[in-house]
Amino acid sequence: MSIESPIKIFSGEKSTYLAEEIARAYGTRLGKYTLQKFSDGEFQPSFEESVRGAHVFMIQSTFQPNDNLVELMMMIDAAKRASAYKVIAVIPYFGFARQDRKDKPRVSIGSKVVADTLHSLGVSRVMTMDLHADQIQGFFNVPVDHLYASSLFVPYIKSLKLKNPVIGSPDMGGTKRANAYARFLETPMLVSHKSREKANVVGQLTVIGPVKDRDVVIVDDMIDTAGTVTKASEIMMEKGANSVRVVATHPVLSGPAMERIEKSPIEEVIVSNTIPLKEKSDKITVLSVANIFADTIKKVYHRESISGNFIV
Predict the structure, then answer these.
(1) How far apart are alpha carbons 210 and 156 in whole angstroms?
(2) Which residue among 14, 112, 194, 231 is the active-site one?
């Protein structure tokens, strides 16, 4: 007679706000977990309940990636040493995802380093959302459940009942995502072509596509310093757009991002809660991904198909 292994859901320190929502949506509670900190910055994770023989789901977004990633790695090691049956890393925001290729000599491919490290620690599976580049899934030698926040954003955009919508991509790399949104919303699309002077600094930006008298919705996987989207919104309004909104799954919002958004003509920024907002703004709307992750965890645990969770 086989015995079903129990499920345990734990959270890293900085993702507790989201993990609690996911656990409630699943119908359980978060497992007991502590993080002992030392004065020099070192820390030690500890599970305060048995995980022997359990499916252990560890929720930790790796925004401000260094400490959060190391904590996740040590949580995985602790669970494996405590005889967990399977360890699944749930990483709503996957840090280092922008380092997906060798774009100049003598640089690392950071996302491959993270994938190799998680695999070497013994993860059975990885669950994440809106990777910066789809090919990162191929860096892993375990199953990757790559979820999309479009199942939240598409219904929300429809609810706005925009009179003359058009979907925009902030750069050439985002055209596949923008095209998927445009297809589901049955709207045309436009593309912004940009050149960067250096990381997080936009040089020239050109908008290609229908703008005049349009309600523009720019879609992207993340919004970091907000330099691209605010510059694009200014150009679009100059070209006669009715309004500009931005949809971005991961609100990194570093450096001058909030100030730029507040001063920009952007009417609304719609984001998910894979990363907590550092400060609130009347321009920012936050949609929760908790139900998506809870449902996917349930289906993975019960060995059911998750293909119905995908819109884009």
Answers:
(1) 22
(2) 194
In the chain the first and final C-alpha atoms are separated, in Å, by: 41
Write out the CATH class of domain 150-288.
alpha beta
Q: Which residues in the chain are classed under CATH 3.40.50.2020?
A: 7-147, 150-288
Angstrom CA distances, 230 to 160, 166, 218, 278, 290, stand at 21, 17, 10, 19, 28
State the SS3 of the chain.
CCCCCCEEEEECHHHHHHHHHHHHHHCCCCCCEEEEECCCCCEEEEECCCCCCCEEEEECCCCCHHHHHHHHHHHHHHHHHCCCCEEEEEECCCCCCCCCCCCCCCCCCHHHHHHHHHHHHCCCEEEEECCCCHHHHHHCCCCEEEECCHHHHHHHHHHHCCCCEEEEECCHHHHHHHHHHHHHHCCCEEEEEEEEEECCEEEEEEEECCCCCCEEEEEEEEECCCHHHHHHHHHHHHCCCCEEEEEEEEECCCCCHHHHHHHCCCCEEEEECCCCCCCCCCCEEEECCHHHHHHHHHHHHCCCCCHHHCCC
Over range 2-31, report the average pLDDT.
Answer: 93
Tokens coding 77: 């090691």
- Going by C-alpha positions, the residue among 209, 221, 244, 108 that lies closest to residue 174 is 221
Tokens describing residue 150:
């479009």
**What's the CATH architecture for 7-147?**
3-Layer(aba) Sandwich (3.40)
Nearest Cα neighbor of 263 from 241, 220, 231, 287 is 231
Q: Which residue has the tokens 């939240």?
A: 152
Give per-residue pLDDT as tens, 121-154. Answer: 999 999 999 999 999 999 999 999 999 999 999 9
Active site annotation includes 263: no
Lowest mean pLDDT among 84-88, 123-127, 190-194: 190-194
